[in-house]
Design goal:
This protein has helices spanning 14-23, 42-54, 68-78, 91-101, 175-182, 202-214; strands spanning 5-8, 27-31, 58-63, 82-85, 104-111, 129-134, 164-166, 186-189, 194-196, 199-200. With 215 residues, it is α/β, with parallel strands linked by helices. Helix 1 (14-23) runs parallel beside helix 2 and helix 1 (14-23) packs parallel to helix 6 (202-214).
């Protein structure tokens, strides 16, 4: 067994938030991106997040190339612990968001080959966490949450000073293998605990977190 932390992302119901908190998730994420089936309003997210925050769960606002106005609204409504950047944000933009918001920053990267990991290097020392997600399939609208996977072993020999999350197609059946193959200390799941796009199943969240504990 390993001490792997887990983030449950794209939550939109109190039952799902409770399952994540009860199951021992370290982080929960709320998506603020209009094209996503997991998109919710910041004012709706705030009361959903409150019970988990009270239990020490870190609250993450997931964004994609958000404007300053959008980020300010998210910050005022939700006051997230971390802002996840899942678009084309540069190191300078990430640093600016961190400074303006007062929140930590997670920068996500789309990975297919070992060479793709190099895109994260300029963000070391700038952001609080890196996230390695599978490259979206051709024609996909969403930058993440597509259920796609990549070769986890490419992370095993890559050393990063900044802590990182493994994401992309994780579920109850493969998370243990993914942790062993990649050496991940943190994992992120979204579509892998859904029964339909954007519809989280509390039982799957519980089972996923159980599997993480056994990894």
């Amino acid at each position: 067994m390993t001490d792997v932390r887990a983030k449950i992302c794209g939550l939109s119901t109190s039952d799902a938030v409770q399952a994540a908190a009860d199951g021992g998730a370290s982080h929960i994420g709320f998506v603020f991106f209009a094209k996503s089936p997991r998109n919710i309003d910041p004012d709706f997210a705030a009361p959903l997040a409150a019970p988990a925050r009270a239990r020490g769960v870190k609250i993450v606002a997931v964004t994609v190339d958000a404007t300053d106005t959008e980020l300010e609204r998210i910050n005022l409504a939700l006051s997230p612990d971390l802002i996840q950047l899942h678009g084309h944000e540069t190191p300078a933009r990430a640093a600016e968001i961190k400074q303006r918001s007062g929140a930590g920053v997670i920068r996500a990267f789309r990975v297919e080959t070992a060479a793709d990991l190099d895109t994260a290097r300029p963000f070391e020392g700038v952001v609080d966490y890196l996230m390695f997600d599978a490259k979206a399939p051709a024609g996909a609208v969403l930058p993440g949450g597509n259920g796609a996977v990549f070769d986890w072993t490419i992370l095993a020999d890559s050393k990063f000073e900044t802590p990182w999350f493994l994401a992309g197609g994780l579920d109850v059946g493969n998370v243990s293998e993914a942790v062993k193959a990649s050496g991940a200390a943190m994992v992120d799941v979204s579509s892998g605990v859904e029964i339909a796009p954007g519809v989280k199943e509390p039982g799957l969240i519980t089972a996923f977190l159980d599997a993480v504990r056994r990894a």
